[in-house]
Write a structure and sequence with these properties.
Layout: H1 4-23, E1 33-34, E2 40-41, H2 43-59, E3 63-67, E4 71-73, E5 76-87, H3 89-93, E6 100-107, E7 110-118, E8 123-128, E9 132-137, E10 143-144, E11 157-160, H4 163-166, H5 172-181, E12 184-186, H6 190-198, E13 204-208, H7 212-215, H8 218-224, E14 228-230, E15 242-246, H9 251-258
Parallel strand pairs: 3-5, 11-12, 11-13
Antiparallel strand pairs: 1-2, 3-4, 5-6, 6-7, 7-8, 8-9, 9-10, 13-15, 14-15
Helix pairs in contact: 1-2
Amino acid sequence: MLDLARAMDTARRAAEAAAAASLVHFRRGVRVETKPDRTPVTAADRESEAAILAIVRAAFPDHAFLGEETGVHAGSAESRWIVDPLDGTRGFTRGRSFWGPLVALEHEGEIVAGAMALPALGEVYWAARGLGTWMRAGDDAPVRLSVSGVSAWSEATFSMGEPHCLLAPPWRDRVLDLATTSATTRCYGDLAGCALVLTGRAEAWIEAGVQLWDLGPIPILVEEAGGRFTDCDGRRTVGSGHCVASNGKVHDHVLEVLRGR
């Protein structure tokens, strides 16, 4: 039987190790390369993934592993770690603050534990099924997170993901509808946009045009904080490349708008 407390602790420690590895290079002129898919990669991405893999392998040597930078590592068919070692590489290379690692454990097809961090802000988030979502900022004691209780979209804060995808067909008009009918709209970018929902500072976050590892731990982090996660078609999956993460109370409204109803 999978030890969820141990999995959660492993995810947290892996995110912290990746944060430390990437901060060594932050705002220090790290060399940027371009991968075949035309996305950027740096030594910070590679070293962060190596740090994550080392911690996961020490705790769960038989588990499979899928990393953005190193690809597939063979292991158990039941359990797989899904990792983006540095979500937001472009922002990282420009010295911005909204980037960090995403670490998820998928067990029997479900995301059951995960963590993420915003290293430049000193924040780490972690969760596991039935164990809540937690956050630590700097040296403060961990706090258990809870999403907001706002239920009216007219009073909601809407957190947008990458505008290049969301403001292009087929999303453009529907996303603009959401943005102009909410109380306020923010576009922090990458995983920081989701962090607003986890901490009750926004009611919904949407993202599109991303990969499996860009969303890995988001379902468990959101759901254990009392929220709801689906893709933009209402399916609970990280595999479609788009998502809605919300406090649950505005979720149906966001889906209805995105579906053009």
